[in-house]
Amino acid sequence: MIRPLMLAAVLTMAGPALAQTAPAAPAATPQIDPARLAAAERVATALVPPGTYLRMMRDQFPAMMDAMMGQMMGMTAGELTGTDGAESDVRLGDAMAKADPHFRERMTIMSRVMSEEMGVVFDKIEPGLRAGLSRAFARKFTTAQLTELDNFFSTPTGKAFSADYLATFMDPEVMQEMTAAMPELMKAMPAIMAKVEKATAHLPPPPKQDASK
Questions:
Q1: Looking at per-residue confidence, does 161 or 177 come out higher?
Q2: Residue ranges covered by each domain of the chain
Q3: Residue 22: pLDDT band by 50, 70, 90 thresholds?
Q4: Cβ atoms of residues 20 and 174 within 8 Å
Q5: pTM, to two decimals
Q6: Contact 95, 77 (CB under 8 A)
């Protein structure tokens, strides 16, 4: 459960840019007007200035993970899964500490190492994300609209908004709501997977992997 949570946290950071980056354009897609693309690039750069992800991973990720883990560790198994049982009142933090006396220290180290290493990775891929975001904006908005956005991001209010746009997705208020939604997600998963199984029932079972390879 913990490692998927860490991965989810990382994807949360990349999500806004990834979600707004258009898929690879087909070969027949018309070329984007250079002036329109230039305006889109200014908007994308305002929203994702160079070094944004590196700073987020370095300065915010560890604190965000500490907050998420603290909230989760205070929840009971019943609250997380929406089930009742003999162990439903056991807090996750107590269960993890019993299973691994070094759990807290292990998670702190994991968070620190991930923030350092993922910061390097995101710093490398950030230009590509910004380029994709620029192309997506150029195809979704007119030159006039992009110019208006660019003008807005040049104002004091626009600069204040764009400077904290991505970082807001890691704000404690946002992360608290994401963590609070986990019990509902866990509760819904059995029914979701049952529907997936029913929808794929007509397919043959997937080939078994050869363990010797």
A1: 161
A2: 12-19+32-197
A3: very low
A4: no
A5: 0.66
A6: yes
